[in-house]
Amino acid sequence: MNRAIGRVAMYLIFVLIAVLLWSTTSKVFLSPSMWTLETAQFVMVAYFVLGGPYSIQLGSNVRMDLFYGDWSPRTKACVDAITVFFLIFYLGVLLYGGLVSTAYSLGYFGDAPFAFLFDLAVTFVTEGRSAAAEALGFLERSPTAWRPWLWPIKTIICLGVFLMILQSLAELFKDIGRLRGVID
C-alpha cells in the first residue's frame, strides 16, 4: 500500500512546480493569485507526508552514517529494532495530535475527539454523505485572505503518519527477522 501511495505522491512534485510556475507568471504578467502560496504549502506537505513511508520502505531515508556503515548486518538490525520504538512513539504522539486537530477542524470542540471522528466515519458509511455533513460543526478555515478549509490537509497528514507507523512496524518485523536469522 505504501508503495502505491508513494508512487502516486511522487508526481505531486509536478503539481507543486505547476502551482509555483503559475504563481510566478501571475505575479509578473497578471494580478497575483492569493491561493498559490497556501496551495504550494499543502501540496508540499502531502508530497512529504505521503512519500515518507515509501522512502522508509526503499531504505532511502537519511541516516547518520558515522558508525552505522561499519557495523555488521546483525548489529544494524539490533540497533534499528531498538530505535524504531522511539520513532513509533513519536509518530503515535504526532498521530494523536493530528487526530485531535482534525476533529477541531471539522467543528468538534468537545472533550472526546476520537469518539466524534469514529461516529462521523460510521455515519458516513452507514447513512451517507449528507448525514455525515449534518454532524459537522463550524469548519475551520485558514486565517489568510483565501481562507481554504483546513480539514483536507489535516486528514492527509493523519493518513501519512498512520502509514508511517505501519511502515515502521514492518521495518521492526524485518529487523526481528534478521536478528532471528530468518531474513538475510
Describe the secondary-structure layout:
Layout: H1 2-10, H2 12-29, H3 36-58, H4 73-105, H5 113-127, H6 129-135, H7 151-180
Helix pairs in contact: 1-3, 2-3, 3-7, 4-5, 4-7, 5-6
Content of β-strand: under 5%
Distance between the termini: 23 Å
- Biggest sheet descriptor: none
- The overall strand count is 0
* Mean pLDDT, all residues: 90
Whole-number tally of structural domains: 1
Question: What is the helix tally?
Answer: 7
Structure explained in plain terms:
The chain is mainly alpha-helical and 184 residues long. The chain has one domain (2-180). Helices cover 73% and strands 0% of the residues. The chain contains 7 helices and no strands. It has helices spanning 2-10, 12-29, 36-58, 73-105, 113-127, 129-135, 151-180. Helix 1 (2-10) packs across helix 3 (36-58), helix 2 runs antiparallel to helix 3 and helix 4 (73-105) packs across helix 5 (113-127). Belongs to the TRAP transporter small permease family. The complex comprises the extracytoplasmic solute receptor protein and the two transmembrane proteins. It is found in: Cell inner membrane.
Key descriptive features of the protein:
mainly alpha, 7 helices, 184 residues, single chain
Q: What's the short story on this structure?
A:
The chain is an all-alpha fold. It has seven helices and no strands. Part of the tripartite ATP-independent periplasmic (TRAP) transport system.
